[in-house]
Design a protein that fits this description.
Elements: H1 4-17, E1 31-36, H2 48-66, E2 70-72, H3 82-91, H4 95-112, H5 128-143, E3 147-157, E4 162-164, E5 182-191, H6 197-202, E6 208-209, H7 211-221, E7 224-233, E8 239-244, E9 255-258, H8 263-267, H9 275-287, H10 290-295, E10 303-311, E11 318-323, E12 335-338, H11 344-353, E13 361-362, E14 364-366, E15 377-388, E16 394-400, E17 405-407, E18 409-412, H12 419-431, E19 436-452, E20 457-470, H13 480-485, E21 486-492, H14 496-499, H15 503-513, E22 524-525, H16 536-550, E23 553-558, E24 564-565, E25 578-581, E26 585-588, H17 618-621, E27 622-624, E28 631-634, H18 648-651, H19 664-670, E29 673-677, H20 686-699, E30 709-713, E31 718-719, H21 736-743, H22 745-754, E32 762-763, H23 766-781, E33 786-787, H24 797-812, H25 816-831, E34 836-837, H26 838-848, H27 853-862, E35 886-893, E36 896-904, H28 909-918, H29 920-926, E37 931-937, E38 941-946
Parallel strand pairs: 1-2, 1-29, 6-30, 9-11, 14-19, 15-20, 29-30, 31-32, 33-34, 35-38
Antiparallel strand pairs: 3-4, 3-5, 5-24, 7-8, 7-10, 7-23, 9-12, 10-11, 13-22, 15-16, 15-18, 16-17, 16-21, 19-20, 25-26, 25-28, 27-28, 35-36, 37-38
Helix pairs in contact: 1-27, 2-22, 3-4, 21-22, 22-23, 24-25, 24-26, 26-27
This protein binds one RNA strand through helix 7, strand 8, strand 12, helix 11 and strand 32.
RNA sequence: GCGGGUAUGGCGGAAUUGGCAGACGCACUAGACUUAGGAUCUAGCGCCGCAAGGCUUGCAGGUUCAACUCCUGUUACCCGCACCA
């Protein structure tokens, strides 16, 4: 046999010469469209991670073809972007030259792997024939008002000297270089992606994406349902509109916060007496990077607007207004109502600024004695008083002898009392301490439902928790009788939890220890007028109804998803095909003038002034208005590198069409991508952009499906030996070329498919690779046993059918590792036989072909087993051949395996039971015991239960 | 903080969806053979134990004749989002 490399080259040439993998529209065949994310052709060349996903889809594609499907499996290049530009800047050559060079390397590497891409459909996003249509589609957005230019604060990377979309500056750093982004005001082209927020969530239902991909998208879109509420300003006849998801807590509003950039700050600067302080704060906030704003989460800052207040629309209370950078201008209305009792951020702010905290929602606990049905229901307002020792770290508790209660001091609030008064009275009455220095009401209120045995009624108590400080231990005399009813006890902080026998009082300990926190869970509304007694959801519905009735608010859904910033101030991207005319405004370049080509000059450096390098090229900039013919200027910003990848799968269907971006017939036949493979890092960027783009085209009637992709799968990363990420600096990068030249492409492919769960990370192991090479060598040696015969060997006939089934199913669900394992098992069996038939061998080779295509073709040819495998069909299996007539099953005694017995498929349960009981070791374990039960699961197991 | 995920021998990982845990591969051990290699073949290989046997799927409970699998709680790690009201 020739060397591995020679064989691989030979078959690669064969497939190329015979156009084996070129897809043609064939209405008699069912289509299947496999897509793998096209790479950015970097100078570093192919990575073993690319090999993993390309091979996986290649294996599925090859198998589907053998099964008779018309498979589209294309490849191309996503070549706009920074690295090529950097290279060009350094070496003063046009980026397209560098791109051309890199593509050549990449393509040769992929061809060496024997991936069955249809190269007749290859293109690069940087080809003018391609980006002509990217520009054309941008104009469709423009014409529908879906692209607009807006001056706004954008994310600016000072290193790359370009604006970035929110998706590209996630976490406040530039996706490309990791630099902290700054906020810069700039005019930018935007695509109205936020209009599609709901559709992008809804559309997920029509896809089979992995759960993690769906949730990543849903989180990014960030839908929240709430209400907008208008608060009148006291000093002027104007209202401040806020957005909240918790309109049910409206009665607990004690202040409001607006974003530092909120327009009201300037609008009402005349009314604000501390404007200097406010402006100061705003400037500081502006200087903070996104990073600083989010890193200092805990520490709230802000300034009160003196002289400007709002009125709570539901109770008429006057409410102070603050500015603070914890409220963002770009979400909701840039203003919030603050309810410190029920929002942690508001709570932190209120604590820092000494603002009131009013609980309006109380948790409801069930007492130890549950309410009894049929008993009278009564309600009571109650205080629970935590008394601090004046010197020691101790708390005053009470032992209520009669009921065995050990608790804080408790008591009812009388009609003419407030909670504070009740607290004072109860402390004095029950414990005799009189020197009460200070009573503080905690923002902790809870309700408890229980059966009050001493009164024989059901009770619902609303418990107000107060903290009392004593000035001294001055105490009035208490009678023995009183002490017998209730005995005051000082308990140290450490023993407090053990002493208290009320669960609710332990919760008070939690609250005190945590330093206080907002209550954000569900409960029952209190202090809330029409909402009292309702739970969270009921109250939200009720109050929204009320607000709408009164015309002071309405239900509102908000999304975090924002419009797509679609311009970059860089050279190496698609020029935006628009012209600015003093007379006519923005005018699209006429379709017949597309593409607007990137000029061919040697100045690619980005500029500090935020202008694209294209702005320096007069011949490019100066043109005439297509509308009125007067002198006009071209847009000089370019598109982001996500533009070209937002529709490339459509172009593959019809890549050479110079009349349309894709022909109708091709669209109709190939439809949507059936299986799309790509990296997890694109779950919220490329994948969202692509879906948005496609949905827009769908709404314009330009494509037949609203969702472009059916299945989305992603491969796990391949880590270097030792489980660390492969990186140049660690020097542990595996170059696929080296592996191919020393072990062969088939061995590399087999190994990468065998390495583990396709969707999880995997660690590279040279030894593992060698193991796979050995496996292929064994397959070669197996040929020595072959005798010509057109039927399966009786001995392994069933094994072959089972393996066909296993491999067929596993390969469709990315379980390549178990498919290969099944093939190894079958191989081990065949190796033990004296001879195998040519049909055994050929079937085996076809099953292995999708994984190791070169070797299997070669063996098939040199042993004259039949047509080239790529021109043959996938084997089928017979269900009747899957089961053995006899089977070994386990016999358990009390769940422990004690023996195995051989049963025939025709044996009935009685027969099996008889055999099980007869087994020697079973006898030993049931001897002298009662057989309680015998469970026979046919074909699986017998379990004998004894006592 | 919110959301998603993972946890099984020395290692990568299997387990028909509740039915013999550790398939298959790697590493390792012993032996055979040789053309001395990235060999090949045979046997062994979760842990404790001479054995009988016992223990074992992150940890603690529960349901069941039977739990890696279902339920409750808990820990650790990974990923995504995050002052989003």
């Amino acid at each position: 046999m020739d060397s591995i490399q020679k064989i691989e080259k030979k078959w690669q040439k064969y497939w190329k010469d015979h156009h084996t993998f070129e897809a043609k529209i064939d209405k008699n065949k069912e289509k299947y469209y496999y897509l793998v994310e096209f790479p950015y052709p970097s100078g570093a060349g192919l990575h073993v991670g690319h090999v993993r996903s390309y091979t996986a889809l290649d294996a599925m594609a090859r198998k589907k073809r053998l099964m008779g499907y018309n498979v589209l499996f294309p490849m191309g290049w996503d070549a706009f972007g920074a690295p090529a530009e950097q290279y060009a800047i350094k070496n003063h050559i046009h980026p397209s030259a560098a791109v051309k060079e890199n593509i050549k390397t990449f393509k040769a590497q992929i061809e060496d792997l024997g991936i069955s891409f249809d190269w007749s459909r290859e293109f690069s996003t940087t080809d003018p024939e391609y980006y002509k249509w990217t520009q054309w589609q941008f104009l469709q957005f423009f014409k529908k008002g879906m692209a607009y230019k807006a001056k706004k604060n954008i994310n600016w990377c000072p290193k790359c000297k370009t604006g970035l979309s929110n998706e590209d500056s996630s976490g406040g750093v530039c996706e490309r270089c990791g630099t902290q982004v700054e906020q810069r005001e700039k005019e930018q082209w935007m695509l109205r992606m936020s209009d599609y927020a709901e559709d992008l969530i809804e559309g997920l239902k029509d896809t089979d994406f992995q759960e993690r991909t769906k949730t990543a998208q849903i989180n990014w879109i960030g839908k929240s349902v709430g209400a907008e509420v208008d608060f009148k300003l006291k000093q002027v006849d104007e209202k401040l509109t806020i957005y909240t998801t918790r309109p049910d807590t409206l009665f607990g509003v004690t202040f409001m916060v607006i974003a530092p950039e909120h327009p009201y700050v300037d609008l009402y600067s005349g009314l604000i007496s501390n404007m200097n302080e406010v402006i100061d704060y705003r400037e500081q906030a502006n200087k903070k990077t996104e990073f600083e704003r989010t890193q200092l989460v805990k520490d709230k800052t802000g300034v009160k607007l003196e002289g400007l207040t709002a009125i709570n629309p539901v109770n008429g209370k006057e409410i102070p207004i603050y500015i603070s950078d914890y409220v963002m201008m770009n979400y909701g209305t840039g203003a919030i109502m603050a309810v410190p009792a029920h929002d942690q951020r508001d709570y932190d702010f209120a604590k820092k600024f000494g603002i009131d905290i009013i609980p309006v929602l109380a948790p409801v606990y069930l007492g130890d004695d549950a309410p009894v049905e049929g008993k009278k229901n009564t309600e009571r307002e109650v205080v629970v008083v935590v008394v601090k020792h004046p010197k020691e770290d101790q708390y005053l508790c009470v032992r209520y002898q009669k009921f065995g209660w050990q608790s804080f001091i408790m008591g009812g609030i009388e009609d003419d009392e407030d909670p504070e008064g009740a607290a004072r009275r109860e402390v004095m009455e029950e414990t005799g301490y009189t020197d009460i220095k200070n009573v503080q009401s905690l923002s902790f209120v809870f309700q408890e439902k229980f059966y009050a045995a001493h009164k024989d009624v059901n009770r619902l108590t609303t418990n107000h928790v107060l903290v009392v400080e004593l000035g001294s231990l001055e105490q009035k005399e208490m009678s023995e009788e009183e002490k017998n009813i209730q005995e005051p006890v000082w308990v140290s902080k450490k023993e407090l939890r053990d002493f208290l026998n009320f669960e609710t009082h332990k919760k008070i300990c939690d609250f005190l220890e945590s330093g206080g926190q907002a209550f954000i869970e569900d409960g029952t509304h209190i202090n809330s007028d029409l909402l009292n007694g309702l739970n969270k959801q009921e109250a939200i519905d009720t109050i929204i109804g009320y607000l709408e009735e009164q015309g002071i608010g309405h239900k509102k859904t908000n999304y975090k998803l924002q419009d797509w910033i679609f311009t970059r101030q860089r050279f190496w991207g698609e020029p935006i095909p628009l012209i600015y005319c003093e007379e006519c405004g923005w005018v699209p370049v006429p379709e017949e003038d597309l593409p607007v080509l990137l000029p061919d000059v040697a100045e690619y450096e980005p500029t500090d002034d935020g202008e694209s390098p294209l702005a320096r090229i007069d011949e490019f900039v100066n043109t005439t208005c297509p509308h009125c013919g007067k002198p006009a200027k071209r847009e000089t910003d370019t598109m982001p590198n996500w533009a070209g990848s937002s529709w490339y799968w459509l172009r593959y269907m019809d890549p050479h069409n110079d009349q349309e971006f894709v022909g109708k017939d091709a669209l109709k036949y190939w439809g949507k991508v059936d299986w799309y493979n790509g990296g997890m890092e694109h779950a919220t960027r490329h994948l969202l952009y692509a879906r948005f783009w496609n949905q827009f085209l769908y709404n314009e009637g330009l494509v037949p499906n609203k969702e472009p992709f059916k299945v989305r799968a992603s491969h796990g990363m391949i880590l270097g030996e030792g489980g660390v990420k492969m990186s140049k600096s660690l020097g542990n990068v595996i170059n696929p070329d080296d592996i191919v030249s020393s072990y062969g492409a088939d061995a590399l492919r087999t190994y990468e498919m065998f390495i583990g769960d396709y969707e999880k990370e995997a660690t590279w192991s040279e030894q593992g690779l060698i193991g796979c090479r050995r496996f292929l060598d064994k397959v070669i040696r197996l040929a020595d046993k072959v005798v010509e015969k057109q039927e399966y060997s009786k001995e392994i006939e069933k094994d072959i059918h089972r393996t066909v089934k296993k491999v067929t199913e596993d390969m469709d669900s990315l379980k390549f590792n178990t498919a290969i394992s099944a093939l190894m098992i079958l191989l081990n069996k065949m190796e033990k036989m004296d001879s195998i038939t040519s049909m055994d061998y050929r079937t085996y080779l076809i099953l292995l072909n999708p994984i190791a295509p070169h070797l299997t073709e070669e063996l098939n040819e040199i042993h004259k087993l039949g047509n080239p495998i790529c021109e043959s069909s996938w084997p089928t299996y017979d269900d009747a051949m899957l089961e053995d007539s006899e089977k070994e099953i386990a016999v358990q005694v009390n769940g422990k395996v004690r023996a195995t017995i051989t049963v025939s498929m025709d044996d009935d349960d009685k027969e099996i039971e008889k055999k099980a009981m007869a087994a020697e070791n079973v006898q030993k374990h049931i001897e002298g015991k009662d057989v309680v039960k015998v469970i026979v699961i046919k074909g699986k197991i017998v379990n004998i239960v004894v006592k």
